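Budget justification, computational time. The allocation requested in the original proposal was used primarily to generate structure tokens for proteins on the priority list. As evidence of use, we reproduce two of the resulting records. The first is shown immediately below.
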Amino acid sequence: MRLRMPTWLLLSFVTFSLTSFLSLIGSIEPLELFFYDRAVRKLRPKFSTNSIVLVALNEQDIKKYGWPLSDATLAELLSKLDRQKPVAIGLDIYRNVPVAPGTEHLNRFFREKNRVIGIEKVISSGLESGIPPNNILKLKRQIASSDIPVDPDGVIRRGLLYPYAQDDPAMPSLSLALAFMYLDTKGIKSKFNDDGSLQLGQKTFFPLNQTDGGYASIDAGSYQTLIDYSGSPGSFTTVSLSQVLEDELPQNTGNGKIVIVGATAPSLNDLQRTPYAAIMSGMEIQANLTNQIVQSALGERISLATLPDYLEFCYLFALVLVFSYLLHIAPKIHYNVILFLLFFLFVLSVSSGAFYWSYWLPLANSLLSLGFISISSAFIKQLEQIKAQNLELKNLTDTLHLKVQLQAESLMESEKMASLGRLVAAISHEIKNPLTFVFSLSHALQNETLTDEGKNYLNSLIENAQRIDRTINDILAFSYPGQIQLISINLGQLLDETINLAWTSFTNEFKDGQVTISTDLSDLYLVTNPNYLQIAFLNIILNGMQASYLKGESPEIQVGCTYLADTREILIKIRDNGAGIDISDLDRIFEPFFTTKALGRGTGLGLWISYQIVTQLGGKILVDSCPLEYTEFKIIFPKSK
């Protein structure tokens, strides 16, 4: 048996597949990053920045000390910072060539001091090539990478832990190198786990993958992580280079802290876009990542992370599955809007809550899925309504049957068979007159010269007109119950005559039909109307023969009648070997115009007429059926006195 997938389930699979595909090829990534930036501003908490001090080279400093800074100026700056006793000094300024005067002074400082971390540009991109480090710091392994990955829209959301430089694969980024020095004072050492993750105290850093969170098209090479910003631009304590050189720096400003020296002057072009509306200097971005690493390792914050891809897909699939099913069972189309708004708020709340608790759960793909399902579900419901209306208007004959059926049911409740007789007489008068004209005109057209297509149309017209005529005649067969005359008859003899009539009718219609009829008839006498009762028996027997034949088997009909002494009733049984009747149809088989036969095979009036005849004659009909095996009708009459 062929199984058909429910529409709502199919819609769920299509939506999930489509949204997942769009996410994987990067079509939804810009929208995901749009939501990400606003979540960073509105939902992420602000973190303490007390452990880091920034020394900024601004435009006023450039006017006063020039650019590039001389080695003497830089040596003086570093010496004064060193006297503050910081844990580490990050020099976010390239120093790969001497700038006289003071070169020897600066080199001596680099050789003697171990707190300074210089930078090197490792990754070449576009027109920018790598920038070598200071040789003295390189030999002392006090060099780190200054590279920062940039998203396709030019925003900095990711940072490097290791750039995997060819000449020094173990070289860390500037942020990580400074964090290492600070954590070393806390007794925290780094180690790599077997799965390639970096363990630092209470935090395990996993490399960022290309499809993590809302990403799909980034270059996830090297060892990257999301930057969990501590706050908006200006969150860190910042002093100018002039303040340090002119001894205006308060005592112990950098004591036990990380000091980062870098440029904030716009003319030096080291300002970057971040998820915040304002731009941020490269030095401050490094400080954010350093602060994130330190606080995560100390257990002072839970850094922003992503869920595994399979969990994101499970969440999305469960969402579309539940939403699609609820739309399917919603009784009206306008409920789609209500459900969409409720699920929109739910998804927004879940994603916002997850982001606040440090998990980036993609939002755009969920909202697009809800919108697609809402529109598609409304369209499907509308289409189903249109199909239902088209079925009701299929053709004139079916419409006529439906109207007669509704009228017949209404009249049977109020006036029973008498009112039905008046209705049928009126309908037959109104229909048979134009129908006679149709027959006359059709017979006249048969004598005309017509094309093959015209002959086909004429034959179809005659067949449908004959079908309407048969329907009216079937209804007229039992329209006036008040005219029934009762006489005493031999029931066994009547059944025997009916069987012969049924056999002749069946074999005339189905030339290859081989019928087996077994009887168990008694000489029972019943006061009834033999003509009407024979019609009832004939309809039931012929139905059984046709059901068996259409099932693909030779009809085997069993007919019997007996007297039930305990209830003083006469029982007539008619059993066939047909396809049986579905349980769902048992309550409807005696309704007018109800039929399971193919179009044109029957009007659905035979059993209804039989039921009306038996009940009008004082009897009752019971039916027992086993699908694919048999159907048995039991007709019971009270014994005449």
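The second record produced under the same allocation is shown here.
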Amino acid sequence: MMLASLGLLLAGSATAHAYESRLIPFRDVGERDWSAEPIYQLAAVQAIDGYADGGFRPLAAMSREEFIKMMTAASGAVPGEQGETVKLKDVDPDRWSYPMIEAALQRRWVDALVDSDGNFQPDVPIRREEVAYAMGAMLLSEAADADRKQWLDGGWEKERDARAFPDAAQVDAPLAPYAYYAVKQGMLEGSDSGLNPDDSLSRQEAAAVIDRLLHRTASAKPLTVTGFYAIQSYNSIERMSLLDQVALGWWHLAYEGAGKAKLDSAGDPYKFNLPEGWEEVTAAADKSGAAKDLVVFANKSHDVESFLGDAAARTQFAESLAAVVDDPRYGFSGVCIDFEDLYDEASKDDFTAFLHEVKAVLNGKKLTVAVPPVYYYKGYDLKAIGAQADAVILMAYNFLSKADRLPSSPLPLVAESVRDTLAAGVPKEKLILGIGKKTDQFIGAGAEAGYASPASSAVEERLKKAGVAQSLSIPYLNRHIQFTDTADNELFYEDADSIDRKIWVARYYGLKGVALWYMGQFVDSDWQRIAAVRQR
């Protein structure tokens, strides 16, 4: 049995040290191992477990019950939801794996794994042909009746002949139609020696199979795409057609002291200002059919906590906001409130009251609220925000710990922040996963190391030059880049593959969509992945 879930293994409190403790890689799965990506990707969403000693044991054989439990859970099948209770001689109803085995048997996915005496043999290592059979039976159950009949009536033989595995004759005849359907669907792959039907399935192979299944399932789930057009994003104006929503970051809070506040569009040091020629941007959004949100930015430099505690100033601000939202020149469909740095729990009620006041002046237009992960920020009542807002954007890209040379958006913490936000009461159909396109560059070594966050275009140009080593960073699952110029450089880069993984996380948890911060940082390869989201 797997002894400790990754969530427990990597638990910790909200400190830099605890942040690191949640990101300890398995001691026996390195970044250059072929199975590293599926193992760490599944571990991030707690779909696969490690052991209490910190290992994963990638080469250990997986038992029948372990695999069927993983497969059934990945399929979304609910134990006890379908059919009568299943009685097995060697699997008692109180056994840890029984609910998932029962669910699989009720759906006729693993009938062939029960012998004539009613034994399932849960501890026996599962063989590759049994894995292929179970996966194929599950996938065929989802096919249309006519397609399933055609396959079972002989269609599978064409697949067998086309594959021409050297060991095809070794596949048990009753399992073959289902096994070859799993192969056709890309769930299992052969090798030079063939399908190797009698070999046991290792834990790393199981991770790869389940990862393929989860990606297949997730790919069918629709997502909305929101792009933040802010700071320096003119280079992405032609990408509006890939968006459902564009959030225009041109306004900020101007708190002028007791009882005085307004929406402002000039003089913000964070560049949340109305640019010259803004009409070209709104025209591009209108042409592409993307809805437009007005983004209101504020953080501690705007004295945001004092403002929220000033009821009179909030009222004045809401009136100022309403005038711009209703201005026909912009054609806004809603407002996105991006108030950051609310560390104090005392801000919760004030922020909730402020959102209520904003919604009251929107005249039916949509309210979106951006929130940070709640590791450090306690001024957000997520349940109340989820109830008031039409959409909630989780800014899951602010985990950086410079002292420990850690990246801004490691996949395990992105996934954990999604789970935390959902558990806090934000409905999944309202939650949007924010994806930050950022590079964390550490220059030199030790306590004197410098830090930089170069533009994506600069990183892409450096990658074209000689002397660059690249790998998959584990367990972060960003691109790991190393090179030496005047000093040693280590970079964690949010490349297209990393963005794809976060899109998958949004689908895995059934979220409303993804949001891109900010559009000007995304490069051509990233937009190709985003285009694929819209095409589905």
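A brief technical remark on that second record: The two ends are 38 Å apart (CA to CA).
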